[in-house]
Automatic annotation (TrEMBL):
It comes from the Eukaryota. InterPro entries: ClpP/crotonase-like_dom_sf, Enoyl-CoA_hyd/isom_CS, Enoyl-CoA_hydra/iso, Enoyl-CoA_hydra_C. Gene3D superfamilies: 2-enoyl-CoA Hydratase, Chain A, domain 1, Lyase 2-enoyl-coa Hydratase, Chain A, domain 2. It comes from Prymnesium parvum. Residues 132-152 have a biased composition (Low complexity). The keyword Lyase applies. This is Enoyl-CoA hydratase. Residues 132-171 are annotated as: Disordered. Keywords: Lyase.
Length: 303
């Protein structure tokens, strides 16, 4: 299927989807969301693909939210009947991992879309070395000997509520719907609250203020902050690493971590234990452990 609001391409074992309406800051129109879920579901079903990466085209935005032009004239029954953006649920229900590589604005539905993904890498200025690909970590502003927290490149006070980023491509997160006379509708209130805790989630939802990549990192919304120039390479390298493991085992691991947000600790522990035992029904568990004992690299068969 040909897409006009996104691009979709395989990068080795990684399915890369790029939101591609840069002039509208990749705003989520109904057509874009339909294409996005179609492409994501197609990669999920493709045995050659082990993990997905989702990013936004252009320097300025991952996605600046639902398309306000499309929504502005709608009434309640229009929204109710069309179930606007219902396809978005499919992103959160993919079996394969999907990594959000967030460059620039992730606002409203854009922030919610990033939070539907399994983890978020954010473009920003405080960098930590890539755990397995040091070459993906260009010089880090914080470790450069000439740079102190007071030097001009160090712009973010992680806890300020009004971070102003100097670079358009650094990630900024927020749920500014309150400014439009509406509220988040794709999980923002729920996933923000779980990720940030009640107080900061409430403040951001009620004020519409934005949060820097560095604050998002500090609060655990994102897994790592990466220089904008290497964000996509890092996301693809990370996805490639995951894609090198057994697909069914990766899916089980994802299911278990997600269960931590859906169940009591006792239920989550029980699920984990049963699914841990179940991995011993796969060929890939034998392959992985045998390879370890033989000091060889496992070649997983995804079964
Ligand atoms: C439609 C959008 C858009 C959006 C930006 N654009 N965001 N179009 N829907 N959400 C368009 C602008 O109209 C403009 O088009 C172009 O993108 C560039 O944007 P500017 O505003 O000129 O850029 P800038 O001054 O740099 O400001 C960037 C910005 C601002 C701070 C991100 O664009 C902004 O506040 N956008 C809206 C963010 C927002 O409120 N999102 C939540 C939406 S509600 P033209 O044609 O003028 O050049 C939502 C609900 C989800 O997401 C729940 C659904 C169920």
């Amino acid at each position: 299927r040909a897409y006009s609001h996104i691009t979709s391409e395989a990068r080795g074992p990684v399915g890369l989807i790029t939101l591609n309406r840069p002039k509208a800051l990749n705003a989520l129109s109904p057509e874009l969301v339909a294409e996005l879920s179609h492409a994501a579901v197609a990669f999920d079903a493709d045995e050659a693909i082990g993990a997905l990466v989702l990013t936004g085209a252009g320097e300025k935005a991952f996605a600046a939210g639902a398309d306000i032009k499309t929504m502005s004239s709608k009434g309640y029954m229009d929204m109710y009947k069309s179930q606007l953006f219902k396809e978005m649920d499919q992103i959160a229900q993919l079996r394969k991992p999907i990594i959000a590589a967030v460059n620039g604005f992730a606002l409203g539905g854009g922030c919610e879309l990033a939070m539907c993904c399994d983890f978020i890498l954010a473009a920003g200025e405080i960098t930590a070395p890539h755990p397995t690909h040091p070459s993906l970590t260009p010089h880090s502003p914080l470790t450069h000997p000439s740079l102190t927290p007071h030097s001009p490149q160090y712009h973010f006070s992680p806890l300020t509520s009004h971070p102003v980023s100097p670079a358009p491509n650094t990630a900024k997160f927020g749920q500014p719907e309150i400014k439009l006379g509406t509220i988040p509708g794709l999980g923002g209130t729920q996933r923000f609250a779980r990720a940030l805790g009640k107080s900061r989630a409430m403040e951001l939802v009620l004020t519409g203020d934005l949060m820097s990549a560095e604050e998002a990192l500090q609060r655990g919304l994102v897994s790592r902050v990466v220089p904008a120039a290497s964000l996509l390479d890092d996301a693809i390298a990370t996805a490639t690493k995951i894609a090198g493991y057994s697909q069914p085992i990766v899916a089980i691991a994802k299911t278990c971590v997600n269960a931590a947000f859906e169940s009591s600790l006792a239920e989550g522990l029980k699920l984990e234990r049963h699914l841990f035992y179940s991995t011993f029904a796969t060929e890939d568990q034998s392959i992985g452990m045998k390879a370890f004992l033989e000091k060889a690299t496992p070649e997983f068969k995804h079964q």
